[in-house]
Every structure is written in C-alpha cells, then in structure tokens.
Specification:
By secondary structure, this protein is mainly β. Helix content is 12%, strand content 47%.
Length: 347
C-alpha cells in the first residue's frame, strides 16, 4: 500500500506539470535557470555536453534522461564538480535507491555558485557586495515495459541574485528504446516543463529553459567504439544568431542551412579499452560557432576525457573547450555501497 501511494503521489505531481507554460523558443541567455542545461557529469561533458541515449549502471545518467534510472544503480552515489570560468563552481550530487515494489528512485542536487560581486546604485555609488547562486533539487523514477523504458523527474529550481529570488517547479519526461539484440539505444527527453513559482521582481518575466532532445548510442559488435549522436534545442528550428547590423565591422556571414542544422547536433565517441576504462571525445557545433572569436577558436566545441570504473569506485575527468581563454575541468567521483557491503561481509 505504501509503495502504491508513493508512486501515485509522484506521478500525480508530475501530471500537474504536463500542462506546461511553454515559452517561445529562445536561447542565448534569454531564459531563467539555464544552469539546468549544463552537463551534470564528466562523462556526458566529454561526449559533447548533451546525451539522452547512454544506458548502463552509471548513476549519473539519471540526470540526463530519467528513463536511464534502473535498479542496478541502487545504492550508488556520485559527486561531480565543474571548475568553470571566472571562478564559477558547478556541483552535482546524485544517488539512487530501490524502495521495495515501487522500484528505484533517483535523487539529485545541482548547485552553481557564481561568487561575490560589487553592488552599485544608478549613480555609481558603491553599496557593498552581494552573492549569486542557483540550485535544483530533483527526484526521479522510471519504469520498464518490454524493450522500452520511461522515466520522469520532478525538480525544484531556485535562483538567488543578492536580495532577489526566483523559483520554479519543473519536470522532465524521458524514454529509451533498448534494442533486444544489438547494443543500440535511442533516447528522447522533454526537459524543464513546468511553471514559475516566484519572480525576481513584480515586473520580471521568467522564461523556462524548455528543451526537446533526441539521440542514439550504438556500439558495433566487433569494434571497441561506442558512438553517440544527440539532437537538442528541437523546439525551435533556427537557433543561429545573426545580426546584419554587425556585417560592416566583422566577418559575420549569415549561417547556411547545413550550419543551422549542425547547431542542433552533438557527437560523442567512447573508446572502450576494457570493461573498466574508456577514453571519451566529443564535438558540439553550436558551442564552436557561437563562442569562437573571429580569428581564433581555441578548440571551442571540442572535449575529451576518460572514465575509470572499478567494483566500488568511479573516477572520470573531462576537459571541455568553450573559448580561446582555455578549457574547463570536470571531475566525477562515484561510490557503490553495494559492492563495499559485499566486500565487508566476505571479510
């Protein structure tokens, strides 16, 4: 009875958010809570920053697609930290636990600390300093039906800028198709549907960071590679930024059709050297086109890393490049309580 009420309460709350206040398609800093689109772990960051089709017992995957949550992740915990530009720090904590007949539930915390800033009034008079941070608390659940899995995530997102606060109740819905014979998975996720609860001010207007993402991951049988292709920002056809007013001053050519399509796609590859060690590489065309300088790119859009998984521990590292200023470093530390308990019992 308890397990039935638990799942019923979870999905009843989700249904409230399935009449989302969809904002018009906008990107480029025009929406609130954009931190929710930052990659939550080093592995996904290395594969281009977006992936909804990976499926194994890595507990971090429940933050990218809730359908990836499975009972094999139970009692696994992972801490992720991104050392971002300008001393911005982004951390994610994920944990999964099986609760009887209700199945596995995933829990997560995502936190971004932007640091301390100087405050001034409209005349330029100093008013001291203020801090800015954002965070989200998530609960996920999934179900399996044949070769398909479906999952959902409820999240409370909060943004603090000095004395101003905004919040929203959001939901993700994801699905996975698992090929019964080949190592092929196809994922689809609708992310950040919901409604704002609190605005920064009475005059502010929150646009939620809604997104639709579709991807596939495939490992050929006799090759040590796993390939992923993910399309995102699918709610809007044209996401390329182009302003003809800047044409006389910089090389600002209007993007062509192929370029516009490519800005929706990321590519990732895993070199599976063994069951416990993978090398990773990725490419994000949108990042490369939007963040490169006129004469230099600094590797923008490219990323690489490695993932080590032992029976009890997981360690992953990624270097992602966004700008000529240099790359960012992403670390993942994971721990499996199940294997540690088995080891202690054996002793």
């Amino acid at each position: 009875m308890f397990y039935h009420m638990l799942t019923k309460t979870f999905y009843s709350s989700l249904l409230i958010l399935l009449v989302p206040l969809f904002s018009e398609g906008q990107i480029g800093g025009k929406r609130s809570f954009e931190f929710l689109h930052m990659p939550g772990n080093a592995r996904v960051a290395a594969l281009g920053g977006v992936n909804v089709s990976l499926f194994d017992d890595d507990v971090n995957l429940l933050m990218t697609n809730p359908a990836a949550l499975q009972t094999e992740m139970s009692r696994q915990i992972a801490l992720n930290h991104l050392f971002y530009y300008a001393n911005i720090n982004h951390s994610t904590l994920t944990y999964a636990h099986e609760i009887g007949k209700a199945g596995a539930f995933g829990f997560g915390i995502q936190y971004v600390n932007y640091g301390e800033f100087d405050s001034y009034d409209e005349t330029g008079l100093g008013l001291g300093t203020f801090r800015a941070n954002e965070y989200a608390i998530t609960v996920s659940h999934s179900r399996k039906q044949g070769n398909f899995r479906i999952g959902s995530t409820l999240k409370m997102a909060v943004s603090n800028i000095g004395p101003y606060t905004s919040s929203a109740l959001l939901a993700d819905i994801g699905g996975l198709f698992l090929h019964p014979q080949k190592q092929l998975t196809v994922g689809l996720a609708f992310k950040n549907m919901g409604l704002p609860l609190q605005q920064y001010t009475e005059d502010s207007d929150i646009n939620l960071p809604f997104d639709v993402q579709l991807g596939a991951t495939y490992k050929p049988e006799f090759m040590p590679f796993r390939f992923s292709v993910t399309a995102y920002n699918l709610y809007q056809a044209d996401i390329a930024y182009y302003d003809p007013a800047y044409q006389p001053y910089v090389n600002n050519e209007e993007p062509g059709t192929v370029d516009k399509v490519m800005r929706h796609i990321t590519f990732g590859t895993e070199l599976v050297l063994s069951k416990n060690f993978n090398l990773l590489a990725g490419y994000n065309h949108l990042v490369r086109r939007e963040l490169r300088l006129e004469q230099a790119s600094g590797g923008a859009g490219f990323s690489w890393g490695f993932n080590v998984r032992l029976k009890t521990f997981q360690f992953a590292y990624t270097k992602s490049y966004y700008h000529v200023a240099g790359g960012t470093n992403f670390l993942t530390l994971g721990y499996n309580f199940n294997n540690s308990l088995k080891k202690s019992k054996a002793l």
